[in-house]
């Protein structure tokens, strides 16, 4: 297994698929995997189940995936900041 990738897109290239479950770290918007989230958005995968402590906010973090309808199910303890 290659341990160092040039970017997030390359790291996720053989991993992403429709309907998969993704767990994202961070607290609120602090420490979230922004580049990995952007790579998931760009991949166009759909039907995701996402586990995180929150859903991001509109246009930021996991909110990007919500806006594009890529998340089918969200498991989190707090969703108050996201309009979706």
From TrEMBL:
The keyword Transferase applies. Belongs to the 3-oxoacid CoA-transferase subunit A family. It comes from Inquilinus limosus. Coiled coil: none annotated. This is Succinyl-CoA--3-ketoacid-CoA transferase. Keywords: Transferase. The keyword Cell wall biogenesis/degradation does not apply. One of its GO terms (molecular function) is CoA-transferase activity.
């Amino acid at each position: 297994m290659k341990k160092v990738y040039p970017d997030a897109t390359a790291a996720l290239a053989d991993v992403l698929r429709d309907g998969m479950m993704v767990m994202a770290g961070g607290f609120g918007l602090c420490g979230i995997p922004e580049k990995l989230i952007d790579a998931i958005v760009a991949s166009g995968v759909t039907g995701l189940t996402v586990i995180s402590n929150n859903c991001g906010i509109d246009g930021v973090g996991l909110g990007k995936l919500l806006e594009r309808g890529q998340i089918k199910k969200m498991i989190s303890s707090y969703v108050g900041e996201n309009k979706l």
